[in-house]
Each structure stands twice: as C-alpha cells, then as structure tokens.
TrEMBL record:
One of its GO terms (biological process) is phosphatidylserine catabolic process. It comes from the Eukaryota. Keywords: Hydrolase, Membrane, Transmembrane, Transmembrane helix. This is Alpha/beta-hydrolase. Gene3D superfamilies: alpha/beta hydrolase. SUPFAM superfamilies: alpha/beta-Hydrolases (SSF53474). Pfam families: Abhydrolase_6.
Length: 385
C-alpha cells in the first residue's frame, strides 16, 4: 500500500513538473525573442559547417549549381544557389568552367522555379536537396533557392517583412539576369508558403505576371496553425490553454510574426496549386482546405449565418437549408474532383481566367510531399513546364 501511495506522489510531482514546463513554454512563446527563434529555427544550421561553395558535396553534378550572394534593398546579403536545368546542362559539350556565363541562356531556354524553403536548416539540407534535384531534372527547370536573412550564410535577423524582401530580391535577381516573369513559378514549402503568398499578393497589386504560385504543405496563418499545432505530431500546444480564461487570446495577441496567407488570397492573381499530404502531422491538411475554400468562396452564393440564441421558424429553417444547398450545388458545378487511385485526390476550378488546384496526396508527410512524382507531374502539366 505504502509503495502505491509513493507512486501516486511521484506521479503527482511528475504532472506538476510537466505542467510547469508547458506553461513555461507557452510564456516563452509570448516573448518576441523566443517566438522568433521558435518560429524560424534559423539557429539550427543543418548540415553543420556546410560548404555552400561546393554544391557538389551535396550531390549536385560538377559545376551545375552556382553559389552566390544576392543583395537586398535594405542591405542584407543572402546566400543562394542557382541550378542549370537538366537538359541545358546535358547539352553542354563538357563540364562548364564558369556556370554564371550560362545563366541568361538557361533562363531563356527553360522555365524557372523560385524555391522558398521552410523554417530551420539551410539550402544544403539533404531533405531539401532531394526536392530541388527532382524538380530540376523531372521538370527540367532552372531552380533558384535562397536562404533568408539570418539563415545559413546570409546576414541579418529573420522577420516577416524581411523574408518577403529576400524572396523579392531573389525574383528581382532572376529578372535582372534575363528571366521573363511569365517563366518564373514561385514555390513555397511550409513556412515558405507564408512568404510566397505575400510575394504573390504583391505581384497581384503591382500587376506583375508570374508563371503562378505553388504552396506545398501550407498553413492558413500562424494563428490558425497554433490553434491546431501538435508538438512532435501529437502533443497539442495551445488546446490545453483553453482551460485558462483568456490565455489563448493572450498568445494570439502576442503573435508578432503572423504570416496570414489567408489574408493574401484576395490579392493573388494567376494560377495557384496547393498540395498537402493527408499524413502531414506537423501542419494538418485542413489548412490547405481552408486556403482552397478562400480562393473558391467569391464564386459561391453567400454562406447563410444562423441567428444565435433564437429558434428558427419553419420558414427560416427552409431558407437556411436552401442557401446551404445552393452553395453545395454551385460548388459541385464548378469544382472538378478526380480521385487517382493509390495517389490521392485533385480538386480544381477555373474562374476569371485562372485555375486553382488542390492536390491531396495519400503519403508524403510534411517534408516529402514535393518528392511525390505524381505531384511533380501535376505541377509540370498545370504550369506548362
Ligand atoms: C568548375 O568551375 C570552376 C570555377 O568556378 C573551375 O575552376 C573549374 O575548372 C570547373 N571545373 C571543371 C571540371 O571544369
Ligand atoms: C564568369 O562569367 C561571368 C558572367 O559572364 C563573369 O562576370 C565572370 O567574370 C566570369 N568569371 C570568371 C572567373 O571568368
């Protein structure tokens, strides 16, 4: 009996320590310095001691990838890699002695992907390298990948506006090097989707044409993501806070870096493809549904809003359910859904001359959705690579 009591006290102590750690973590999240580090994880410089000047060390063909620096208008210097497309590289009689001499003709020969990576690690991280290589060879595309300010060998400190400036500087470098905007596809993964959405919204406002926007494993906004975020894929981060009145609101208020892609949707013109693996444990695929729905919403009849705290009369009930039916009917009318056995599902609609596609893959988790050949082929077809 006494040992049982002993165990009970031990367990109680353990629970108190665990609860204290949890509250400590949430409190840290409210401090801008820690919030920045937890969101960007740019201090995690993987691979360790990377030699960016030798892309060959990470598996690239000799002198296929050019390592260089891009200067931003606010005086940061960011590290970048530019990869010659597969067909262009193979057409050369021998290994190029000076890659940068080939950039302009490669940009004219094949379309380009401006790749905006997610948080943590660098452009040399093996999981990422595998993705550029696949896009570079299977889509036969030029690839420009940048490391945002504060990441890898780039100067500065990350911030929401800063990352968007860096992406824009990457775009400007491509255009200055001879790329046509219509040939450049903006592609973001994870945190990079927040950056890409804002860049695309800028283009929408400035009337700049691109090949389109691809959002891989995106989130609707950091606020939305936090509500459903699970540490290590299974420990809910914010949900337990609901037992403390006002605590979840405090965290939302303390959020400095919002990356509200959902808010950018109205300004994004051009073709869009959103892709998410159903088994993504870091960012639930419901985020992609929310984004797709936001693109679709202007083309559906208004959603009925039930009056709270009041019983509906039979007439009100029937007009309410009619409005829902009208919305569903319109949705099935304009959204084309295709199930591809063993791969996933593709939903798409075309309106006002642009196409929005949602791809849900069965596998791929958070980091390997881009590695799905089925998805690469859909991107190739939809964006005319
Ligand atoms: C690769 O490029 C470097 C210059 O960046 C050059 O010195 C070297 O000779 C090139 N390699 C080959 C095999 O041509
Ligand atoms: C490589 O080519 C670029 C662009 O043509 C040129 O500016 C640069 O000086 C060249 N580098 C070498 C080492 O020849």
């Amino acid at each position: 009996m006494s040992s049982l009591v002993n165990w009970f006290f031990r367990f109680q102590k353990f629970a108190v320590v665990l609860g204290g750690c949890y509250l400590g973590l949430v409190a840290l999240l409210c401090v801008p310095y820690f919030q920045r580090h937890m969101l960007y994880l740019n201090a995690v410089k993987l691979p360790l001691f990377a030699n960016f000047d030798s892309p060959e060390s990470y598996g690239f063909a000799p002198n296929k990838t050019y390592n260089f620096k891009i200067h931003t208008p606010d005086h940061e210097t960011i590290g970048a890699w530019f990869m010659l497309p597969e067909s262009y590289y193979q057409s050369l009689p021998s290994i190029p002695v000076n890659v940068s001499e080939h950039i302009t003709s490669a940009l004219n020969a094949r379309p380009t992907i401006l790749f905006l990576h997610g948080n943590a690690a660098t452009r040399a991280f093996h999981v990422r390298v595998a993705q550029y290589q696949a896009l570079n060879s299977r889509l036969d595309a030029n690839i420009l990948v940048i490391d945002y300010r504060g990441f890898a060998d780039s100067t500065g400190t990350p911030s929401e506006e800063g990352l968007v400036l860096d992406a824009r500087a990457g775009w400007d470098w491509l255009v200055a090097s001879g790329a046509k905007g219509e040939d450049v596809l903006v592609m973001g993964h994870s945190l990079g989707t927040g950056v890409g959405s804002q860049l695309a919204a800028q283009f929408g406002k400035e009337g700049i044409q691109s090949r389109g926007l691809v959002l891989l494993s995106p989130f609707a906004s950091i606020g939305e993501l936090l509500q459903h975020y699970h540490l290590f894929g299974f420990i809910p981060l914010i949900k337990p806070l609901y037992v403390i009145p006002g605590a979840a609101r405090l965290v939302a208020w303390a959020l400095v870096h919002k990356f509200d892609s959902l808010h950018s949707v109205k300004d994004i013109a051009g073709n869009v493809l959103i892709a998410h693996a159903q088994n993504d444990l870091e960012i639930p695929d419901s985020n992609s549904d929310i984004l797709f729905q936001a693109f679709l919403d202007p083309y559906l009849p208004d959603a009925p809003v039930p009056t709270l705290g009041k019983l509906l009369s039979p007439e009100e009930w029937s007009s309410f359910s009619e409005a829902i039916d009208a919305r569903n009917t319109k949705r099935t009318e304009i959204v084309m859904s295709t199930t591809i056995p063993k791969f996933g599902r593709v939903d798409e609609f075309t309106a006002d001359g642009r196409r929005v596609v949602l791809v849900k893959t069965l596998v791929g988790s958070h980091d390997f959705v881009t590695s799905q050949e089925g998805l690469q082929d859909i991107i190739r077809k939809k964006f005319g690579f």
